[in-house]
C-alpha cells in the first residue's frame, strides 16, 4: 500500500516532465495575459491617464443650456359674472367673466470661462504629476511581474531538483540496504549495518514525501501568477556559466537605485504633488474672475397684452472675493504643509530602501557566484569521495554508513548547487529592478541558459 501511494504521488508530481517544456519567456507571456496583480496595475495606469483631461477641463469654458415651458391659466371673473346687467355699451345683457390662458417658453444658453482661478491651475498642474505617478507605479508593477515570474519559475525547478535528488538518493539507499541484508545473511557484516541502511532508507522516504509536497506548493504559486497549471518547465543547461553584474562595482548600482528606482520616482512626484496641494489650498484666500455670457429667448403666447417674443444677450465678467470662511482655508493649508513633510519623509524612506535592496541584490549575486564555484568544486570532490567509499566498502576497509554518508553528501551538494544558481539568477534580476533598469529584454539572456 505504501509503495503504491508513493508511486502515485511521484507520477502526479513529475508527469509534466513528459510534456513539452515551457521556457521562461513562455511563462512570462502567460503571466502578462493572466496575472491578476498586473491586470490591476494596468487598469490603474489607464485610470491615471485620465487625470490630465480632468484637470484641463477646469481651465476650459463651461457651456450649458436650460429651458422651461410653463402654462398659466388665470381666472379674474367678477362676483356677478353671468347675471343680467348694463353692459359697457349701454345695453342690458349677461355680464361676462375675464381671465387669461398663457404659454411661456424660455431657452437660455450660458457660458462661463474662468479667467483667474488659481486653485484650478494648480489642480491642472497636479493632474500631470498624478498621471506620471501612475505611470511610474505601472512600470514598477512590470518589474515586479518579471521578478515574481522568475522567482516562481526557479522555485519550481529547485523543487523538481530536490525531488529528483531525493529519488536518486532513495534508489542508492535501496541498493545499499539490499547489499547490507545480503552481507548480513552470509555473515560478512553485522546487523548494525543493516539497521543503519534501513534508517537511511526510512529517512529518505520521508524526505521524498516532503519534496513531493513542496513541488506541489511551488507549482501552485506559479499557477497563481500565470492562471494555468504549469505542465513542464525547461531546466537549466548542465554546467551553465553565470555572468557577473555589469558594472562590477557596487556604487553605480546604489546611485541608480537612489535616483532611478520607480518607487523613488513615484515618491518624488508625490512630494511635488504635495507642494502643489499647499498652493491650491492657499487659493481659498484668492479672488476669482470669470467671463460670463448668456443668451435668453422668451416666447409668450395666449390671451394677454404681454404676448410676444423677447431675446436677451448678455456678456460680462464676474468676480468673487472670499472674506471669511471660519478659518477653514487656514486649517487646510496647515494640513497640506504637514502632508508635504510626510511626503518628504516617505521619499527619504523609499530612497534608503531602494539603496538597501540594491546592496542586498548585489551582494547576493556576488556571493552566489562564489558559492556556485565552491559547490562545483565540492561536487567533484563529493563524487570522488563516494567512488572511494564504494571501493573501500567492496574491499572491506569501509563500512556501510560511510557509503551512505558519502551518497548523502553528494546529493546534498548537487541540490545546493542548483539552488545557488537559481538564487544568483534571480538576484541579478532583482539588482536591475532595484536600480530601475529591469526590462523585458533582460529575460532573454536568462532564457538562453535554459534547455529548449
UniProtKB/TrEMBL annotation:
Subcellular localization: Cell outer membrane
PANTHER family listed in its UniProt record: OUTER MEMBRANE PROTEIN TOLC
NCBIfam families noted in UniProt: type_I_sec_TolC
S-adenosyl-L-methionine in keyword set: no
Domain of life of the native organism: Bacteria
This protein's UniProt keywords: Cell outer membrane, Membrane, Signal, Transmembrane, Transmembrane beta strand, Transport
Signal peptide range in chain numbering: 1-21
Family: Belongs to the outer membrane factor (OMF) (TC 1.B.17) family.
Name of this protein: TolC family outer membrane protein
Transport listed as a keyword: yes
Pfam families membership: OEP (PF02321)
InterPro entries with a match to the protein in the record: OMP_efflux, T1SS_OMP_TolC, TolC-like
UniProt source species: Massilia soli
Amino acid at each position: 500500500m505504501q509503495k503504491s501511494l508513493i508511486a502515485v504521488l511521484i507520477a502526479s508530481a513529475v508527469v509534466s516532465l513528459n510534456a513539452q517544456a515551457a521556457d521562461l519567456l513562455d511563462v512570462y507571456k502567460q503571466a502578462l495575459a493572466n496575472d491578476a496583480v498586473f491586470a490591476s496595475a494596468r487598469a490603474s495606469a489607464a485610470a491615471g491617464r485620465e487625470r490630465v483631461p480632468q484637470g484641463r477641463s477646469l481651465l476650459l469654458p463651461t457651456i450649458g443650456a436650460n429651458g422651461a415651458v410653463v402654462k398659466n391659466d388665470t381666472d379674474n371673473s367678477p362676483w356677478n359674472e353671468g347675471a343680467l346687467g348694463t353692459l359697457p355699451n349701454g345695453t342690458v345683457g349677461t355680464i361676462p367673466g375675464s381671465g387669461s390662458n398663457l404659454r411661456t417658453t424660455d431657452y437660455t444658453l450660458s457660458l462661463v470661462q474662468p479667467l483667474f482661478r488659481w486653485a484650478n491651475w494648480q489642480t491642472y498642474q497636479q493632474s500631470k504629476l498624478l498621471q506620471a505617478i501612475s505611470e511610474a507605479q505601472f512600470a514598477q508593477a512590470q518589474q515586479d511581474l518579471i521578478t515574481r515570474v522568475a522567482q516562481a519559475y526557479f522555485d519550481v525547478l529547485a523543487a523538481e531538483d530536490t525531488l529528483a535528488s531525493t529519488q536518486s538518493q532513495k534508489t542508492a539507499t535501496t541498493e545499499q540496504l539490499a547489499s547490507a541484508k545480503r552481507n548480513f545473511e552470509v555473515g560478512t557484516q553485522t546487523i548494525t549495518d543493516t539497521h543503519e541502511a534501513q534508517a537511511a532508507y526510512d529517512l529518505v522516504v520521508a524526505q521524498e514525501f516532503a519534496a513531493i509536497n513542496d513541488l506541489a506548493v511551488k507549482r501552485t504559486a506559479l499557477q497563481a501568477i500565470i492562471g494555468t497549471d504549469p505542465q513542464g518547465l525547461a531546466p537549466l543547461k548542465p554546467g551553465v556559466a553565470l555572468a557577473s553584474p555589469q558594472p562590477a562595482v557596487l556604487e553605480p548600482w546604489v546611485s541608480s537605485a537612489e535616483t532611478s528606482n520607480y518607487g523613488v520616482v513615484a515618491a518624488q512626484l508625490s512630494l511635488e504633488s504635495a507642494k502643489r496641494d499647499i498652493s491650491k489650498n492657499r487659493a481659498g484666500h484668492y479672488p476669482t474672475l470669470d467671463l460670463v455670457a448668456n443668451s435668453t429667448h422668451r416666447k409668450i403666447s395666449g390671451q394677454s397684452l404681454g404676448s410676444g417674443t423677447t431675446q436677451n444677450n448678455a456678456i460680462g465678467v464676474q468676480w468673487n472675493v472670499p472674506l471669511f470662511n471660519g478659518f477653514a482655508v487656514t486649517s487646510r493649508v496647515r494640513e497640506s504643509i504637514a502632508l508635504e513633510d510626510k511626503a518628504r519623509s516617505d521619499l527619504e524612506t523609499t530612497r534608503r530602501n531602494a539603496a538597501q535592496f540594491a546592496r542586498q541584490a548585489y551582494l547576493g549575486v556576488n556571493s552566489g557566484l562564489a558559492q556556485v564555484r565552491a559547490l562545483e568544486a565540492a561536487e567533484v570532490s563529493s563524487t570522488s569521495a563516494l567512488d572511494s567509499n564504494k571501493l573501500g566498502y567492496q574491499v572491506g576497509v569501509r563500512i556501510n554508513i560511510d557509503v551512505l554518508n558519502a551518497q548523502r553528501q553528494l546529493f546534498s551538494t548537487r541540490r545546493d548547487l542548483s539552488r545557488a544558481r537559481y538564487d544568483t539568477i534571480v538576484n541579478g534580476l532583482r539588482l536591475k529592478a532595484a536600480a530601475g533598469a529591469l526590462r523585458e529584454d533582460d529575460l532573454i539572456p536568462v532564457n538562453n541558459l535554459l534547455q529548449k
